[in-house]
Each structure stands twice: as structure tokens, then as C-alpha cells.
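Entry for the shared binder. Reason: the reviewer on the internal report wants the predicted structure included alongside the sequence.
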Amino acid sequence: MHLLYISHDPTDLNKYLDNFIEKLMTARTDKRPDEKSPLVNVTVLPEDVVIVTRAAVASFKEQKTLIRVDKSALPINIVGDLHGEFRELRMMLSKCGDPICQSYLFLGDYVDRGVQGVECYMLLLALKCRFPHKVYMLRGNHEDANTATTYGFYDECKDKFAPIGETIWSHFVNVFNWMPCAALVADKIFCMHGGLSPHISALEDVENIKRPTIVPPYGLMCDLVWSDPDNKYPGWALSTRGISYTFDDDLIKKFCKAFDIDLIVRAHQIYQDMYRNGYKFFAEGRLLSIFSAPNYLNYKNDCCIVKVSAAFVVSFIVFRPILKNAKAVAATPKKGTASIE
């Protein structure tokens, strides 16, 4: 396969990224005859993947596993799971504003489930490389070779880049293995994809996680992308997911007090009572769970983005899917259940 060469001159790379971002953001949306969500009609070339993923790995190498986002980066938009909903991602970026003027923190799960994971992930990687001090990306449990092989992204790569899909897949996996796992915003807001871990004795424990690495089946990094808040059992309990733990409100409050944290923001789940507005508080407001993929798996759910202003005021931008049949909204799981992905 012939790959494009980009010189080490950052001006050349920035020009390429500007053009690539513009192509993805301005491509037209095509309706589908089966009444499913429209798709954005844009082609990502193998050369694009090679250039952007190499630049992304270099950029992630400049960051520690715990990103410390200074207060000067505010205002910041915190975004949860996206799962290949590329059209919706473009809408959110257009609504929330250009990264030149404000910052973004993405909490992971860019791929799988949805059909345009390649486009989602590539746009965000390009933005991260172009605006490294404005766009921050964390690893989710789906940014892992094992999980993404099972839930769709591997097949998407093989289909879109045949006959070299395996090679393109390997470029994406390399990026997965370099991604940071947590962020501390203005020393007061602790963010990750999954949740807390019994293996944290100091925030430096997160900072010192060595990369590149797969997501291990046990330990601190595993918990950061897999664990969940749940008050069904006290303290730490084995998760029904079959991996990692659940943790209750008391542990959340103790963690915030021990590390002088005002708020924990995480993604990773959509509960039935999040279908309206896309967020849920735990531990009397000390932990916030958000979800940013609207109408996920046809759940008819809202989604949201958390905005933290320069004055440290937290607000929500809620996105609501337009449904042709309003009666379909009633088709939700029973009260008290959680739909988790």
C-alpha cells in the first residue's frame, strides 16, 4: 500500500489537518430509504488514517495517563459516549462552538455500536492533533482491541478499507493503547470513562500508569474504564458486567473528601432515568454520569454535554432526538433497570 508522506514541518501537518477537518465537517448528509438515521457521505482514505493516527500517537505521548487541564482552559465542554454517531457529533460541535474559542474533553467510547465509528474517531483525533491544548480525549472501554473486535469497530474497518482493513485496524489499535485514562480539570473536577477504583491511593497512581498498554482484566486502569456507581451493594462489589467493580455513594464522598474533589464526571452507562435529559447525579451531587449518544440503539433517549464556564459554573446542553412516532417513546425498559453498554 502506498502511503502519503507528511514532512516533519508542523505547518504542513496543520494545513493537512485543517483540510481534513473541513472535509469531515462539511460533507453532506444523505437520507436512507429504511428511515434509519441519515449517514454523512464522506470517505476517509487509508492515507488519512495513517497520517492522523501517527500524529495522534505522537500527541498522546506528550501527555501523561492523567491529564491535568488548567483552569485557563475553561470554558470546557465535557462529552460522554458517542458510539459512531457521526452526524450527531458534528451537530454537537456546531452547537457548542469552535475549539479555538473553548475546550473539549471527550470521555471515550467513540467507536462500536454505531456505523460511522471511523469517521467519529478520525474527526476527534484530527481536532486533538490540531488543537492539542483545546481538545482532550480519554480512553473508554471500547477503545480496546478485545472489546472493539466484538462490538463492531473491527468489522467496520474491514468493510470500509478492504482488502487492507486489518492493517488500518492495527493503526487504530496503536492509538487506543496510547490514550490517557483520566483528567483533572482545574484541580477540582475528576473525569474518566468508567469510575473509581480501590487501587487509587493517590492521583499520581493514575498518572504513573505506563503506556502503551491494552486494557487489563484487573487493576486501576481496568476500573477507570469499566467500573460503575451502584448503591445496590455497600462499598466495593463485583460488577455484574463480569469485570471490575461497583462503588456506592459513601465511597464517592470519601474519595472527593480525600482528594479535595468537587465533582466526578464519568460516562459509560445510560439508565432508564437518564432517557430524559441524558444525565444522572449520585452521592448528593458529587458524581455525575452523562451520555452523549442520542437515540442510542433506538432507545429514543436524550443526550447531553456538560459545560463548565470560566466562572466554574456547571450547566447542561441537552440534545433531543426528533422522533416521527411519538408513541415510540413509551417503549423503554422497566423502572429501576439500567441499560449499560
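Summary line for the report: Residues 178 and 212 are 5 Å apart (CA to CA).
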